[in-house]
Amino acid sequence: MDSPVSDTETVPIEVIFQQECYESSEEPPMEEWSSLEIVPQEENKKKILHQEGLYDPGSGEVCTKYITMSASSVLRHPYFCYPAIKDPGIEKALLEPEAVLKYPDDGQALYLDICEEMKQCPVRSFHKGLLGSKIDLRYYCVNADGIRAMAAALRYNKTVKSLNFTDNFLNDDASFHLGNMLITNSTITELNLRGCRIGPGGAMRLLHNLPHNKGLVTLDLSYNQLGDEGMTHLAKAIFYGLDVKKINLAYNNITGKGVMHLVDSFETHNKFTHINLSWNKLYTPGGAPFLMKLSETSTTLQVLDLSWNSLGGPKFGFAIKSILECPLIKKLNLSNNKFEGEAMAAIASNLTKAKKLQTLHLSYNPLTPADALAVLNKVRMVASKLQKLYMENVFVDGEFLSLLERIKRMKSKKNVVVTYGGVVSKFVGKGPDPRDLILNRVEYLAKKPKKNKVDIALFMLQLQKENRSIMGLKEFVAVLEEGGLRLDDSIVDELFNVFPGTASAKFKTININLMVEYMKRKWPDRQLPPTPPPEPEPEPVPVPVKPKKKGKK
After folding, report:
1. Angle at which helices 434-447 and 456-465 pack, to 10 degrees?
2. Which of 218, 274, 422, 527 is deepest in the core (most CB within 10 A)?
3. What is the maximum alpha-carbon separation in the chain?
């Protein structure tokens, strides 16, 4: 049995790993200090550039003119040489022209910039409309100064086709900018300036460059106070090749003298298809020759509006007759004029020759039932292509109504539309004979003076005896004054109405035979004294012959 180990005896122990432990108060050895780590310094860029030959520090000498610049407050000494800097654009800004700022063709950005430059408030409706096909600014109170920005925005626009400035007050400057805009913009086909009061000056500036535009089709210049002076500028534009097809010149105080300015221009260039000359003064001298020239030179005219011009008489009747000979005329408006009688007969005679005429306005003309019947008789013919006949406020008779019923039963005329004002009957009320009344008045006036009393019955019998049966107004009045009888103009007119002579469009005549025939029935006891037989011519007295004396040969 072994004996136990004693306390003093050591047992050997094998060491596998030993951790070095330091006390917290001790510092690491000096070799491990982080402050002693050598950080490589950044190389000097100038030295690198100098080694590559891209930098020269200079000679080191200082020019004396720079000595005054020395100051202790300068952190970087001005004598130190720095590399040259690149030009930031100063040379380009001074020597080269400024680059042009380009805007999109729609003009929205350009419109806003010009409004900002002019300190104008942009019109939102116009700004949005630049992307559409129609800009409607009627009754918008557009400032005339703002038209400049709008015209600049529309100069190269390719979408807007219709521009409406109805009832906006535009001055000469606004008309000038609109005219310049139309030089480059050929997309706009309709320009409406109704009621803008541009006047002759505005018309001159608008129409000056318009012949260069080949896209504008419709131009509305109504209610613009153009007058006859404005027609001179329009005539000049037409002469140089105005391509507008539809023009509205209504309510511009244009007289016959004004439209005569267009006659010479129509001989060289006339492409109008729609012309509106309503509410003017074409009844003045020059209106009828203008219509004649229009019919001769126009081969494209389709619609003509001549309403509210007080036209009437044979002269204008024959002028309208020639208008109906235009090959493409489709609509003719003659309402609110003074056509009747011979003028209406001339117009009706050419209704069958107008092969394209579809609508005829004759409303509010003083047409008689006979005139209305004459027009309807032309409509009844197969050669007439008229489909709409408007005769408002024109009174017709029963014969007109029966003819209209027969026309509606025709297959080729079943779509014809005819309007009229009212129907008058053939009833004639009984009353005093106007011939008796007027002759009693003339008899009273002839015997009223105390001296030089005239017997009107014997006076007329004497005129009949002298074979003066038909007399004009001036001749009749002169004969009465020679006989010592002076009558008022109203009484003379009534005599011509109750005893009419041969019908004439230029002057009235009186039939003395009709007057004498009625006087013989009214005053049968008044007769001219019998004409004494002619006295026989005295026989010639024979001349005595002296006897010859004897003794003389």
Report:
1. 100
2. 274
3. 262
Domain ranges of the chain: 108-423, 434-522
303: β partners: 274, 331
Q: Under DSSP, is residue 121 helix (H, G, I), strand (E, B) or coil?
A: coil
Residues 413 and 405: beta-carbon distance below 8 Å: no
Output the CA angle 363-369-373, nearest 5 degrees.
90
Residue 452 Ramachandran class (φ > 0 left, ψ -120 to 50 alpha, else beta): left
User: Do 108-423 and 434-522 come out as alike in CATH topology?
Assistant: no
Pairwise CA distance, residues 183 & 210, whole Å = 7
Question: What is the 8-class DSSP label of residue 527?
Answer: -
Q: CA 49, 55, 61, 64 torsion: positive or negative?
A: negative
Give the span between the Cα atoms of 219 and 507, in whole angstroms: 43
On the CB side of 289, CA atoms within 13 Å amount to 13
* Gyration radius of the chain over CA positions: 54
Does residue 289 contact residue 260 with C-beta atoms inside 8 Å? yes
Number of neighbours of residue 183 by Cβ within 10 angstroms:
14
Residue type, 221: L
Q: Which two tokens stand for residue 2?
A: 């072994």
User: pTM for the whole thing?
Assistant: 0.66
Per-residue tokens: 104: 């999109």
Report the C-alpha gap between 164 and 324 in whole angstroms.
Answer: 33
Structure confidence at residue 63 as a pLDDT band (50, 70, 90): low
SS3 79: coil
DSSP code of residue 466: T
CA dihedral over 100, 103, 105, 111, signed as positive or negative? negative
What was the pLDDT predicted at 364?
96
Using one digit for the tens of pLDDT, what is the confidence trace for 205-245? 999 999 999 999 999 999 999 999 999 999 999 999 999 99
Give the residue-averaged pLDDT of 487-498: 90
Strand partners, 339: none
CB 499 within 8 A of CB 510: yes
Tell me the torsion sign for CA atoms 512, 518, 520, 522.
negative
Q: Residue 551: which region, alpha, beta or left (left: phi > 0; alpha: psi -120 to 50)?
A: left
The dihedral sign for the CA sequence 34, 35, 38, 40: positive
DSSP code of 107?
A: -
Q: 509: helix, coil or strand?
A: strand
Q: 108-423 adopts what CATH topology?
A: 3.80.10
Q: State the CATH architecture for 434-522.
A: Orthogonal Bundle (1.10)
285-343 per-position pLDDT tens digit: 999 999 999 999 999 999 999 999 999 999 999 999 999 999 999 999 999 999 999 99
